[in-house]
Amino acid sequence: MVPYRGIRRSLLFVPGESERKFQHALKTAADGIIFDLEDSVAAHLKPVARKQVNRLLKTSDFAGKERLVRINPLSSGLTEQDIEETIAGRPHTYVIPKVSVPEDIQQIDRILERNEDKYGFPLGSTGLLVIVAETPASMLYLREIAASSTRITGFTWGNEDLITALGGKKIRDDAGELIPLFHIVRSFALLTAVSFNIDPLDAVYANFKDLTGLSKEAQDAADLGYIGKIAIHPDQINPINRHFEISDEEIAEARELVEAFEVARANGQNTFAFKGGMVDEPHYTRAMKLLKRADRLKNRMKF
After folding, report:
1. DSSP alpha helices (H): ranges in the chain?
2. Is 223 marked within a binding site?
3. Domain HpcH/HpaI aldolase/citrate lyase spans what residues (predicted)?
4. For position 300, what pLDDT does the model report?
5. Architecture of the structural domain at 10-244
6. What are the domain boundaries of the chain?
7. Distance from CA of residue 81 to its chain's centroid?
8. Residue pLDDT, tens place only, 195-225
9. 281 known member of a binding site
10. Is 70 annotated as a binding residue?
11. Is pTM, for the whole model, over 0.85?
């Protein structure tokens, strides 16, 4: 069975032990909610968080939102327990942090398969959203990680853990812009995801009070080809959604271009004038991708 591939303009993190924040998240326009069992949950609260996440997954009306759980990394020794104690709630997707090599994903794939079999779920139906670039090694294995499992439906990238691992001092310059290293990381994560038909999701913007900076970064990501962005605060959702939405005008122009291109191609032309410019195959491909995304926005998958 193919894992969930709904619309992902915005995915919002909530601490796994906080039902209050979860209920607030449900009222936002986020396309998905990520229950966090990792960084935002203190060690002594992780058992409580697992039980609560499982209960909320089973009993809550998500109104079409994607249901995700970020588990602890394999190095923590908690990964298998995180999955075993939450999979009965049937999350669409597990978010996998601190991946270094493809074998990490393959190990998690096997854990999921055992648990899907245990509960009678279709094998391969649980998806993975992989956080790349949280370890230096992962940047050397992006292609292999992307190819390591058919469960992978999304890539996002991290910066805080990477700068810590590198022993660096800052992620952004004095103007608030990402330093050059993270532009490289961001670009390679995007290129790899698109090459493997994986959803590329931009990294979190940590300063949740700076909605101007968030909006600029979200627009930059959308211009590059990212389809959405991870959020850490409800106030970030509307600005993010706005930049990853597709307007009626964009849809209409894409349809017009596709129709014109197909007529031209039928007449033996692969290049022709369209609205004052020359268009060819890449323009057609880009328009088709836009229409496909628009269809995903319009028709959320139910699961």
Report:
1. 19-26, 46-59, 79-84, 102-119, 142-146, 160-166, 180-195, 211-224, 237-244, 248-266, 281-298
2. no
3. 9-234
4. 57
5. Alpha-Beta Barrel (3.20)
6. 10-244, 248-298
7. 23
8. 999 999 999 999 999 999 999 999 999 999 9
9. no
10. yes
11. yes
